[in-house]
């Protein structure tokens, strides 16, 4: 290595890296705060514990480092390899050399795997020359832009930010100095003895990618790991609330129906006889407008349920001009109480467990600030119990998911921040929870502060640390499917409640239950809310417990209601033809769709068929193909698809998903190439 | 739009008319009812709960949430109607961001145009007679404006109970509260001609009225005179959306009595809007609401009994703020309506009253709806359950 590294001469030193954290810190352009990658290393140096925090800046115009996908993977692999290994370093330079010796094989392996995959693809397509030409062309463009020719710098181990940070940390540890900087041709950075506590305090909100070695054990519940779902990969590319508007269309397609999709989560499916069913987001075709009018108004729900002997918390409605009356009422029914909007949604403005008149005054101020803060509100008794979402379809309880506030469990070694990162990794595997990660909100920091904890605290092994005081899944809460544990009397009350509401074929009710195994008569269990929207995601994808196929049951109930006969089996593979209309040409639509199709692993072809139309033939796994149908109506930013009509076609053979431009004029193709190179 | 209509001796706010009329119809056919806030009505022959038939703002139970949502989305509703082969005026939706494209489009299709809210209550807020690009922009500007009442579905009686709550809003450069940028507006060719509004129930076109352009109210009962194609088009437009059991459809044509020229559908409302029919004929409200309740009864598998002109029974009124005080006021209000009411029982702690009532279905229904909406007394009820004590059951 020709770089000049300050030579701090040390005799052979025994170094063991005990805990390594590499974290990416996002930049804040408005405040001119640059992004960076940080390595926090706790090491044992000749038996003495030491810790340093090293950082590497990622400047905007500095293309020196890579910190993205593949580069980060390599960082994680290196960190894993290095942690716990006993090193014996002669001097700083050779120490760095030894680390790089570990890096090279990892880089080689990644390069080899990638090259193999590319070769396989190009060999199939017989376009090696075109690929080589494109490589040269892209390299030329890079040079013109003032970048290195080499298009894939992450193939060079010394260009990886996370690895550079680790190397600087190692140098820092060996130097014996509490802080210092390093400037060399291939890496520049500094280190200091900043504590983790200080680091988190300053940078918590800007944390991005995060790895720690040793890795915390995957979260588990009653000895079981979190659920994994075979359709998670297919759902991952869908936008945040994709499951809401997608799962039912998937069921319809798998059962052989055809579909027409419109923007904003809308679609209409039909059978061969022209019987049609319509959906828009969670707006159900088996719920009556009457049922929604009742369920969305808490007072109406209460009056109805009381008449069928379903327990509901005692309470009343007040207008925002009647705050004094509300306070008197709370005094009368007794604390704790809950304040919530009378026609609420998504938990907006709800304040629970209010324990005194003074707290109620504060709670109502908080309520007034919410988006529904001008509307009438309800004051009701806060009833004890855990929060269950029970799904009733056609009078039967098919799922029961209990929710618990966000939390992590300590292991005596990892910080709360470490544990949150790895809890989120498990959540990312869950199609419903992947868009509901634990975040460092004021509420979370407040919750920790209440227990005299901070993100740097290291909880004892087995200790549960609550991160929120409400069981909301959107705030990182956990979900457990427990329908088999539910006492029959509880299921009976749930069915009776739903039956009292006219025309409610699918309902997700919220109940507060102290003990799911005990009969209703032996505990306080109440119905809090009936939900007429088709809220399928939370019940279909519980974090723990045996999942129920709620979407399938919902769809089957819908088919029964609409007199649509279904085949005995759902298809596991689909071959579909899509006709997409709207602004879908000249906007990068086909390229976007092709990349999504490849990511989903489906095969077929996309082509323009007119000025405002594109057609697709696609085949593959049913979950993946139906996800593409959803995406087809989304398109890239500049596109505006107005409809996607999907029909079933005969299965066909294909190796890949391609963009068929054979009917494009040469001028259009040239324009396309130039556009792509510029972007 | 009228504010209130004199009915049964009271001034009934126009927006309560749909709920009032199905309530009246249920009582007239001898059903027992449970009336809940936001014009929800459950009814049955023996008891109100579990109900045999139910309605919300006059919308029958058989209209699904999906269907009423489609109906309140103008772009979607137009797409469904067109796909069913029913003609609509040329139109397209645009957001505030693309208001210039909207003007270009308006020029292409030719002025005058109508600009309507893309989503919301039916019939939509609309600005008619727009004749220039400036006019299009200013129509967008006006329709963009929002108010806190738009975000208070619990207390705002003008928002339907099944409507999607739209909480987002921005503040524009002038400090006005406006709908978010992505909110869409429909620009539609304003077609000259006569507008006929038809109520469709299931497969039947029940009543049709000629609308007055400027007020949007019916002025003439044309049920018998309008050409059959008007009825056919109205039924097709309603059934274009799966799950829509009832529709109030506006059709523009040169002459509603003949089948010459185009007939275009400009509105399909999921709500009856009976207040716009009764102005063309007092009995139309009864005819329409009878048809609505008959539709639902048929689906529930029973025939409605013949109507009665006098009903008496016991009403359980719940959720009053001050039962004692209201108990004093109620009989007085009843007298004004020509209704006989006696307070039988008061539970001041729970806020409940039991009343003995006797009168016509119209007056009892009006009384109940106004008490629920807070328009009868200073207090308001959370529910009213009425059980008739008819000897001729």
From TrEMBL, chain A:
Keyword Hydrolase on entry: yes
A single GO BP: SOS response
Keywords: ATP-binding, Hydrolase, Ligase, Nucleotide-binding
Alphabetized GO MF terms: acylphosphatase activity; ATP binding; metal ion binding; ribosomal S6-glutamic acid ligase activity
Catalytic activity: an acyl phosphate + H2O = a carboxylate + phosphate + H(+)
Catalytic residues as annotated in Swiss-Prot or TrEMBL: 590, 608
Gene Ontology, cellular component aspect: cytoplasm
UniProt domain ATP-grasp: residue ranges: 302-559
EC number(s) recorded for this UniProt protein: 3.6.1.7
Family as reported in the entry's similarity comment: Belongs to the acylphosphatase family.
Enzyme category, top tier: hydrolase
All residue ranges annotated as the Acylphosphatase-like domain in the record: 575-661
Cited InterPro entries: Acylphosphatase-like_dom, Acylphosphatase-like_dom_sf, ATP-grasp, CPAse_ATP-bd
SUPFAM superfamilies xref list: Acylphosphatase/BLUF domain-like, Glutathione synthetase ATP-binding domain-like
Protein name: acylphosphatase
From TrEMBL, chain B:
GO terms for MF: ATP binding; metal ion binding
Keywords associated with the record: ATP-binding, Nucleotide-binding
Domain ATP-grasp per the UniProt entry, residue ranges: 78-297
Domain of life of the native organism: Bacteria
Signal peptide start and end residues: none
Pfam families linked to this entry: CPSase_L_D2
UniProt-recorded name of the protein: Carbamoyl-phosphate synthase L chain, ATP binding domain
Organism from which the protein derives: Brevibacterium jeotgali
């Amino acid at each position: 290595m020709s770089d000049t590294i300050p030579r701090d001469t040390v005799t052979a030193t025994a170094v063991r890296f005990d805990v390594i954290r590499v974290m990416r810190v996002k930049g804040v352009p408005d405040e001119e705060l640059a992004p960076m990658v940080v390595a926090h290393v706790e090491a044992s140096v000749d038996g003495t514990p030491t810790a340093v925090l090293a950082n590497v800046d990622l400047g905007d115009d500095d293309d020196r480092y890579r910190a993205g996908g593949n580069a980060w993977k390599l960082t994680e692999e290196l960190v894993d390899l290095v942690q716990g290994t006993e090193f014996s370093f002669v001097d700083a330079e050779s120490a760095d050399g030894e680390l790089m010796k570990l890096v090279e094989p990892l880089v080689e392996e990644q390069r080899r795997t990638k090259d193999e995959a590319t070769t396989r693809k190009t060999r199939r397509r017989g376009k090696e020359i075109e690929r080589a030409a494109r490589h040269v062309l892209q390299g030329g463009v890079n040079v013109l832009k003032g970048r290195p020719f080499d298009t894939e710098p992450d193939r060079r181990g010394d260009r990886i930010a996370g690895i550079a940070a680790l190397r600087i940390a190692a140098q820092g540890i060996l130097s014996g100095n509490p802080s210092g900087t390093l400037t060399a041709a291939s890496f520049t950075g500094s280190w200091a003895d900043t504590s983790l506590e200080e680091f988190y305090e300053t940078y918590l909100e800007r944390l991005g990618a995060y790895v720690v070695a040793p890795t915390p054990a995957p979260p588990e519940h009653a000895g079981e790991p979190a659920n994994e779902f075979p359709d998670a990969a297919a759902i991952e590319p869908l936008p945040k609330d994709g499951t809401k508007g997608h799962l039912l269309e998937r069921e319809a397609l798998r059962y052989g129906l055809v579909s027409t999709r419109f923007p904003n989560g809308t679609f209409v499916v039909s059978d061969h006889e022209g019987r049609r069913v319509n959906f828009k987001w969670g707006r159900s075709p088996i719920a009556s407008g009457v049922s929604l009018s009742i369920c969305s108004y808490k007072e109406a729900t209460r009056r109805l349920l009381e008449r069928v002997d379903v327990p509901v918390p005692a309470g009343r409605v007040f207008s925002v001009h009647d705050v004094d009356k509300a306070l008197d009422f709370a005094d009368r029914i007794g604390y704790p109480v809950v304040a919530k909007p009378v026609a609420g949604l998504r938990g907006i403005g709800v304040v629970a467990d209010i324990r005194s008149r003074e707290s109620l005054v504060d709670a109502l101020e908080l309520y007034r600030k919410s988006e529904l803060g001008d509307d009438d509100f309800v004051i009701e008794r806060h009833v004890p119990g855990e929060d269950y979402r029970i799904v009733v379809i056609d009078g039967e309880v098919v799922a029961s998911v209990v929710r618990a506030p966000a939390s992590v469990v300590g292991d005596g070694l990892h910080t709360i921040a470490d544990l949150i990162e790895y809890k989120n990794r498990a959540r990312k595997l869950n199609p419903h929870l992947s868009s509901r990660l634990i975040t460092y909100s004021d509420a979370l920091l407040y919750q920790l502060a209440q227990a005299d904890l901070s993100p740097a605290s290291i909880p004892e092994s087995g200790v549960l640390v609550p991160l929120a005081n409400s069981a909301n899944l959107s705030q990182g809460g956990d979900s457990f499917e427990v329908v088999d544990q539910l006492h029959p009397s509880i299921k009976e009350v749930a069915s009776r409640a739903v039956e009292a509401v006219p025309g409610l074929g699918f309902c997700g009710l919220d109940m507060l239950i102290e003990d799911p195994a005990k009969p209703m008569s032996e505990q306080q269990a109440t119905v809090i809310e009936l939900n007429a929207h088709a809220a399928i995601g939370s019940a279909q994808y519980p974090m723990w417990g045996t999942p129920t196929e709620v979407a399938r049951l919902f769809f089957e109930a819908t088919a029964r209601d609409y007199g649509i006969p279904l085949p005995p089996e759902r298809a596991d593979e689909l071959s579909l033809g899509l006709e997409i209309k709207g602004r879908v040409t000249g906007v990068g639509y086909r390229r976007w769709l092709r990349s999504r199709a490849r990511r989903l692993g489906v095969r077929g072809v996309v082509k323009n068929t007119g000025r405002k139309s594109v057609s697709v033939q696609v085949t593959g796994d049913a979950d993946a193909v139906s996800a593409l149908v959803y995406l087809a109506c989304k398109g890239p930013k500049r596109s505006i698809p107005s409809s996607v009509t999907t029909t079933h076609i005969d299965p066909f053979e294909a190796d890949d998903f391609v963009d068929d431009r054979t009917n494009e004029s040469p001028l259009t193709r040239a324009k396309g190439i130039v556009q792509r190179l510029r972007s | 739009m009228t504010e209130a209509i004199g009915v049964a001796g009271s001034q009934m706010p126009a927006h309560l008319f749909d709920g009032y009329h199905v309530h009246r119809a249920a009582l007239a056919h001898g059903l027992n009812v449970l009336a809940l806030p936001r014009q929800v009505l459950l009814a049955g022959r023996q008891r109100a709960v579990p109900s045999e038939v139910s309605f919300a703002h006059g919308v029958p139970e058989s209209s699904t949430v999906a269907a009423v949502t489609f109906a309140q989305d103008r772009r979607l509703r137009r797409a469904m109607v067109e796909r069913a082969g029913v003609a609509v005026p040329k139109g397209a939706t645009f957001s505030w961001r693309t208001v210039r494209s909207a003007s270009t489009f308006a020029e292409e299709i030719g002025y005058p145009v109508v600009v309507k809210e893309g989503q919301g209550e039916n019939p939509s807020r609309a600005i008619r007679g727009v004749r220039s690009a400036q006019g299009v922009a200013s129509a967008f500007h006006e329709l963009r404006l929002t108010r806190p009442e738009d975000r208070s579905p619990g207390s705002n009686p003008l928002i339907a109970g099944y409507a999607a709550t739209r909480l987002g809003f921005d503040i524009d450069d002038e400090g006005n509260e406006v709908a978010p940028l992505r909110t869409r507006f429909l620009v539609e060719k304003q077609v000259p001609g006569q507008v006929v509004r038809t109520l469709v129930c299931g497969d039947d076109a029940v009543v049709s009225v000629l609308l007055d352009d400027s007020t949007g109210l019916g002025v003439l009962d044309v049920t018998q005179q309008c050409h059959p194609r008007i009825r056919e088009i109205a039924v097709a437009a309603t059934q274009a959306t799966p799950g829509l059991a009832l529709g109030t459809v506006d059709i523009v044509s040169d002459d509603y009595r003949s089948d010459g020229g185009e007939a275009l559908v400009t509105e399909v409302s999921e709500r009856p809007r009976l207040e716009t029919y009764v102005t063309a004929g007092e009995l139309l409200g009864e005819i329409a609401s009878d048809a609505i309740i008959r539709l639902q009864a048929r689906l529930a598998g029973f025939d409605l009994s013949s109507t009665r002109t006098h009903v008496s029974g016991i009403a359980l009124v719940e959720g009053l703020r001050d039962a004692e005080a209201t108990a004093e006021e109620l009989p007085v209000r009843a007298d004004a309506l020509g209704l006989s009411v006696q307070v039988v029982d008061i539970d001041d702690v729970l806020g409940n009253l039991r009343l003995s009532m006797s009168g016509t279905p119209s007056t009892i229904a009006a009384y109940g709806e106004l008490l629920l909406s807070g328009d009868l007394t200073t207090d308001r009820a959370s529910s009213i359950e009425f059980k008739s004590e008819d000897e001729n059951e």
